[in-house]
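Board notes, transcribed. Complex of a protein with MRU.
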Amino acid sequence: MNVIVWDNDRVRFLDQTRLPQEEQYVVTGDYRVIADAIRRLAIRGAPLIGIAAAYGAALAVRNSSGDDQSHFTKQVEQAAAELESTRPTAVNLSWALNRIRRVVAESEGQPIADRSSSLLREAHAIHDEDRAMCESISQFGAGLLGEASTILTHCNTGALATGGRGTALGMIVRAWELGKIKHVYIDETRPLLQGSRLTAWELGKMGIPHTLITDNAAAFLMQQRRVQSIVVGADRIASNGDVANKIGTYGLAVLAAAHSVPFIVAAPRSTIDWDIKSGAQIPIETRADEEITRVVGTRIAPNGTAAYAPAFDVTPHRLITAIVTDRGICRAPYRDAFRRQQRLTVDKHD
Ligand code: MRU
């Protein structure tokens, strides 16, 4: 599935707000259209918004010519700042844009056309690396799941949310290919319904048996012993292993602990924020009241009802059984486990 592609100096992306009714693609040469798509969740999912922002920054200077070095740098910085302001929680966004900024700094003084090409090369690299990270996560994660597994997942963490096959959903799909999945339960994921609109759509396309539940049915399912593992993604992971993910994730983790169900998080290392010590420092996005006072355009609360719509919550690391990254499986204490994985990478590049 090509959720986002660079094609002939344009970006083509799938508008996820239209799913599952229609598969509509948008083609644009304007980074502001990308920024707007991220803001309104037409492009969403932590890894995918990083990839889209990198392509957006490349678009901003695609037709630059002349030899005004500082104008070029300013144009990229302005686009990067606008793209970065779209959503605050997923660290992949600033992670990808910082890679772009590094290329801008390193290419200073080179011909403008070459600088522009370097930016595009970096955006492609971010995309390609994410695809590869999804493969590794899927492979490592599938190994964690038992035979004839029944899994509960939240939000959407598949091909629609990444540059590849997905993170949490990627490992479920890989386990299915290995014959290890009996059934997948999908939380509908109020209020924007990423579970019912997107995850059910992806699993349906692949023929993986699934059942949709309301978010508030999860406890009952666990009480009935119908869930063997819960697998979710992440938008930002603090260096101590606290995880920010779609609102409702924390509640699931508490329920998992109460019912002795393993609670597994899957994410690429680009989602780990080394600069913060705990989840308390993660900025949590608040969405517009209308996203919960209306359902598909219809008002479901009296006019003037106060609403509070946090898009994410933070799950403390003590509730997490394992975090699967593209380098393998981490268990508490997470800081040490992440460090060991980083050392692995550094050694490999030395
Ligand atoms: O608001 P969204 O739809 O962008 O939220 C997405 C999630 O919370 C995902 O679980 C997370 O980004 C991981 S996607 C691989």
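Residues 112-144 form the longest helix (33 residues). The pocket of MRU is lined by residues 41, 44-47, 90, 155, 157, 161-162, 167, 194, 233-235, 245-246, 311 (CB under 6 Å).
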